[in-house]
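JOB MANIFEST
job_type = single_chain_structure
chain_count = 1
residues = 331
[input]
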Amino acid sequence: MKIIDMHSHFVPENWPDLADRFGTPRNWPWMRHEGGGKAMIMVGEEEFRPIDERCWSGPAKLEDMDRDGVDIQIMSATPVLFGYTRPAEQALDCAKLFNDAARDICAADPARLKSLCQVPLQDIDKSCAEVSRAMKDGHVGVQIGNHVGEKNLDDAGIVTFLHHCADIGAPVLVHPWDMMARERMPKYMLAWLVGMPAETQLSILSLIMSGAFERLPKSLTLCFAHGGGSFPYLLGRVDNAWTHRDIVRKDCPNLPSSYVDRFFVDSAVFNQAALSLLVATMGEDRVMLGSDYPFPLGEQRVGALVRGHDGLSAPAKAKIMGGNAARFFGL
């Protein structure tokens, strides 16, 4: 059985000064290296996140994979690199830059290290062109944010992009990036602990309640990070509202819970009871091992939650640990 971690991250060791590259104010992400394999992601003059060489070193990633018994790691950029608020040409330039950097990291062992590309999602034509280029270049799918400005995933342009991904066979990972109500959550990483799960539920429900899934082909392979956020726990509330309020079901022809066969989620929920609920909600064929490696909010020993789960059968564990991801990505 292959063990596949389908949700991990990378940050290049270095990249060009984007402010100089584009002649813009110095509010771009950059790396402040601190020695000893440690660094700080900066955004302008603000510290964003401390990281270490496991973000950019293929050999360091492989060492941890060997430690945890992971056969394949599928990495995607940390979302601070998306550039969705920038002019589309600049965001496209960044996407190409970071997509190529991901392939360089994977070169340490292309059989075990795989990558998802990013796209300038604020421009659908450019996004379609870049995902097509990146897939030909060796990426196994694409990671997108859960919204662009005021546009949720049911936006007509984003639906067009998802349709294109289905047409070219590009699996899609949806990852939250710019959490709601940050001004009310300035401390304790509450934006990550409260806003991020809510953002993911919003993105799932935007596809279900708008009827977008009715317009998208069933060939679309779509996954939501972090166990679907708050979606699994609150799905009963959504079904109840759909049943009793016509304004809820206005654009959604079927019970919301009937759409769980249209997407996947990862296993990054960090608790056996939560994983039990997730598998009960989604089914054992729709959950894939995802660790959020190598960040502190990720699983520190990849796969430990699934391996040690008391209530999952051996066949279910095999699916979650690798079988489902192999099918999802065509590996």
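[summary]
The mean pLDDT is 96.
DSSP finds twelve helices and eleven strands in the chain.
exit_status = 0
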